[in-house]
Design brief:
six-stranded parallel sheet, Rossmann fold, alpha/beta
């Protein structure tokens, strides 16, 4: 979202400076693109008109001591060192850039934003990145309290789960709902050359042109549920012998998931391709999208699948962002139920159009409602309103 905001904002209205909280150890996948735009690790070119300036903060890498004995002590020492250096860096960037608005992203970036706002009194916008349950699962349980505790310092919250903030006492007028979104403009040319991508990526994988490909996209972590799509492979290939699964993403569960695939003797059927800067060709090559998340419902990855016209099989998580039931672009099954999940995949792929009509429903709905540019415009409006109300 940070990358989309910086690249798609009207430069006549908004100038950005991205400040990293955790050290960039070469794993920040957007770093080079942000540098090319002049918003990260080098000075931003001033515009001929005087646009609103936003300073944004984003964590880069998690603590290196996660797997060590006494990791609790090491992680806190690491965090304090990181925070000390980050606050110095934020202060230096602030003095250089002189932002009109502070936009705090995710968790550690939020703390930096609160600290900066308390000192400078500049208006602050906050992006709440996930559900409270996901914060707890990801060892960010403290963030649930923190997001609410400092709400008087926040001009506007953006969250896909606004009711959670409201139930904790955040005034509703401060909350703007976020919806899933896709880059419709970037997807259009990929859709137009879908057959080329289908053939090329099958060649890349070393599978037949007639192979059926399912795709999952997301960080390799427990809450993304990739293990369930892996467990489903054996069941699906009993009915669909030419079935293959692609998983895009990196994360802490990578080795564990690969070991499970190896144990099931499915290394020729499950393809871990890591993080892809441009995932759209892989969506284009696929026949079905597997939404295996066990906490959230639709997210950016599944929005991309919708925009690409893929039928979707997903777990019913009970989340308020659920679209499968509303749009009818796939099949919803009980959470973590591998048998039902497998049966849904088989049902779609075995249908006469291989789920084409379902995918078309999702594509039409996404193109009508979920263009990422509409979301970015909401952020820009929030910046401008915050500056206007503060008289800056």
């Amino acid at each position: 979202m940070l990358y989309d905001i910086t690249r798609l904002s009207d430069p006549a209205l908004v100038a950005h400076r991205v400040v990293a909280i955790h050290p960039d150890l070469g794993r920040y996948v957007y770093a080079e693109r942000l540098r090319e735009m002049g918003v990260y690790s080098k000075k931003t070119t001033r515009q001929s008109r005087d646009p609103v300036k936003t300073a944004t903060a984003e964590p880069i890498a998690r603590p290196l001591a996660r797997g060590l004995p006494l990791r609790w002590v090491f992680r806190r020492i690491y965090h304090w060192c990181v925070y000390a250096l980050a606050f110095i860096r934020v202060a230096v960037e602030y003095m250089s850039f002189k932002p009109s608005v502070i936009h705090a992203h995710t968790f550690d970036g939020y703390y930096a934003g609160v600290w900066l706002q308390a000192i400078t009194k500049k208006p602050m916008i906050v992006t709440v990145p996930c559900m409270f349950s996901q914060m707890e699962a990801g060892e960010f349980g403290w963030a649930r309290v923190s997001f609410v505790k400092h709400h008087k310092q926040v001009k506007k919250y953006f969250s896909a789960y606004p009711h959670e903030l409201a139930c904790e006492g955040v005034p509703e007028e401060k909350i703007t709902p976020l919806v899933v979104a896709a880059d419709i403009v970037a997807i259009a040319p990929v859709l137009a050359s879908r057959e080329i991508h289908r053939k090329r990526i099958r060649q890349e994988l070393g599978v037949g042109d007639d192979s059926v490909i399912a795709i999952s996209v997301g960080r390799l972590s427990p809450e993304k549920g990739h293990e369930y799509s892996i467990e489903a492979i054996s069941r699906v290939i009993e009915k669909i012998p030419n079935y293959h699964s692609i998983i895009l993403g990196n994360g802490p569960e990578g080795e564990k998931l690969k070991a499970r695939v190896s144990g099931l003797r499915l290394t020729d059927r499950c393809h871990f391709l890591g993080f892809k800067e441009d995932p759209f060709p892989y969506y284009a090559a696929a026949d079905i999208y597997l939404r295996t998340t066990i906490m959230e419902a639709d997210n950016i990855s599944s929005a991309n699948a919708m925009a690409m016209g893929l039928p979707i099989v997903g777990f019913d998580t009970g989340a308020e962002t659920e679209l499968l039931r509303k749009v009818g672009n796939g099949i919803l099954v009980p959470s973590r139920n591998v048998e039902e999940f497998s049966n849904a995949v088989i049902k779609i792929i075995s249908s006469p159009d291989k789920g084409g009509a379902l995918g078309e429903k999702g594509k039409i709905y996404c193109h009508e409602h979920f263009d990422i540019r509409n979301i970015v415009n909401k952020f820009v409006s929030a910046y401008l309103n915050a500056v206007t109300k503060d008289g800056n």
